[in-house]
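Each field is set out underneath.
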Amino acid sequence: MQSYRDLPVLINQWANVVRWEMRTRLFLRTLEFLWQEGHTAHATHDEAEEEARRMLGVYRDFMEGWMAMPVITGLKTDSEKFAGALRTYSCEGMMQDNKAVQAGTSHNLGQSFAKAFDLKFQSEAGSLEYAWNTSWGVTTRLIGAMVMTHGDDNGIRIPPLLAPIEIVIVPIWRSEEDKGRVKAAAHLVKESLLGWERRVPGRLRVHVDDREGMKPGAKYYEWELRGIPLRMELGPRDLDQNHAVMVRLDTGEKRPVSLGSVGEDAADLLHLIQETMLIDARERREQNSIRGGITYDRFREVMDGDGAFVYAGWCGDPKCEDAIKEETKATIRVLPDEEFRSAEPPTTCLKCGRASTAEALWAKAY
């Protein structure tokens, strides 16, 4: 990189990382993990800021659009931001125990790293300038976040767009005569589903579970445990009526579908499941969020109990932030972006009662 004409430099990579973790948690904190990270260099602060915010939006789109995991985006406080950065932005998701997971971050690094590594370029005016850098990343922590956002007592629940198998077809038979007929029909249905045009790129991912020596109920249990979003049951009576039975994992709802329109019905159901999982997760988050009027004593009770996302005022003093963290183990997850702020912004600090300079999202976190 020598000239402004070489900018921006945009580097994206997947890498394995090893770091010391005193207490590991499956997927969330491990000694070794895989992450996707980006590093960029720009000619101006504004270009770097735009890139940092753009990538935060990319992460949010993936988390909500594909993982069906709603997130709150916003700015990290100085004590929580990446060391050396100008600003750190984060996506924060609520898990079913009301704790937060920092699902992805994006940093405007300013020029501090460029100065440390003597990263300069010749500007259009001819002067030598330090580059403006960003970095951003997500890790295999997202797998843990997906499991904890959607899982239930029956196993994991995988959003259709991410499920390795979206539809499992379970042929049902009692006699040898029925077995051949039903198995053949199940594979024909699979072929018709594989060719179906769907609303997003890629074909439907379909599997026929025609294992012998295993009862249908045991197969149902196994696929529920593995989180496959849609099950199709196909027996001799169904064939006689030219239909199959679709079963949604998220609601348990059963509905007959015509074999003549099975592709359209399956695609519509998967789209509905994807939407419903996001809606359910967002409603659960809002039901466990507290906005406005909370006292510090009540805040402590909440954090000692079931926990919540608490939106409250903050005076901007790191001493108040540190005191709350010490006394409750809760931290400011983000200073929320405008769309997530309360309709009536808090006027006083949660801790000291002084005038609030910002609304903060407080929660315990993994």
User: Anything to note?
Assistant: The mean pLDDT is 95. Residues 289-363 form a domain with the Translation Initiation Factor IF3 fold (CATH 3.30.110.30). The CA atoms of residues 168 and 207 lie 5 Å apart. The first strand starts at residue 9 and ends at 18.
